[in-house]
């Protein structure tokens, strides 16, 4: 059993904007503190043998300037690598290019914080229809997998894979994640009715249920 509410509450979420050369972009940021140090967390999120234990199988050249491919998901180019502080990469999926920035930092109590910022152009049709939850729910699932892997050392996808996502527990996780992203969207200054509609569409898309 997954402690759904505890995991949802362990994550900080923020929605914002960033000005790029090509124009304004939307940002969706998640962060969570893990019971390990920065060096181990860096290894967990960059080692191709460990990434599949909490996220997805990955192939490619995992170094600065290299290309990566996540099985059945995004590909991209690694644009910045500063171990063990973080990295950034393009996120190419569904004909759209966005960016991710990963930052790792030590906490005063000796634990380590993982933070990921997903940056997408404001004219992206996915954002207008689904809001930050479109990527946010997926990243919440990733942070859950990372929490399980760090805590146990085991392969989280064995327990929270596709079958789990369609279970009652998995759907409840999706609903709570979607509601948390709705709150973050409103906190960023979005119109509440617009944010509500986006969240409802996103939750329905992830759960396969009508809104």
Automatic annotation (TrEMBL):
InterPro entries: ASHA1/2-like_C, START-like_dom_sf
Domain (Activator of Hsp90 ATPase homologue 1/2-like C-terminal): residue spans on this chain: 36-142
Top-level taxon of origin: Bacteria
CDD domains per UniProt: SRPBCC_CalC_Aha1-like_6 (cd08899)
Family: Belongs to the AHA1 family.
Protein name: SRPBCC family protein
Species of the source: Actinomadura chokoriensis
């Amino acid at each position: 059993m997954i402690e759904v509410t505890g995991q949802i509450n362990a994550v900080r979420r923020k929605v914002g904007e960033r000005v790029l050369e090509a124009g304004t972009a939307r940002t969706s940021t998640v962060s969570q503190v893990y019971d390990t140090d920065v060096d181990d967390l860096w290894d967990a999120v960059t080692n191709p043998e460990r990434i599949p234990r909490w996220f997805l199988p990955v192939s490619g050249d995992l170094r600065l300037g290299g290309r990566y491919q996540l099985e059945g998901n995004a590909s991209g180019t690694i644009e910045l690598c500063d171990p063990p502080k973080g990295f950034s990469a393009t996120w190419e999926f569904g004909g759209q290019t966005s960016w991710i920035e990963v930052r790792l930092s030590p906490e005063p109590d000796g634990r380590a914080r993982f933070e990921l910022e997903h940056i997408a152009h404001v004219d992206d049709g996915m954002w207008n229809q689904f809001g930050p939850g479109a990527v946010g729910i997926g990243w919440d699932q990733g942070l859950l997998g990372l929490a399980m892997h760090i805590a146990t050392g085991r392969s989280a996808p064995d327990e929270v894979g596709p079958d789990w996502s369609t279970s009652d527990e998995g759907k409840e996780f999706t609903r709570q994640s979607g509601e948390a992203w709705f709150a973050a969207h409103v906190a960023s200054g979005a119109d509440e009715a617009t944010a509500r509609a986006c969240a409802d569409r996103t939750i329905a898309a992830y759960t396969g249920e009508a809104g």
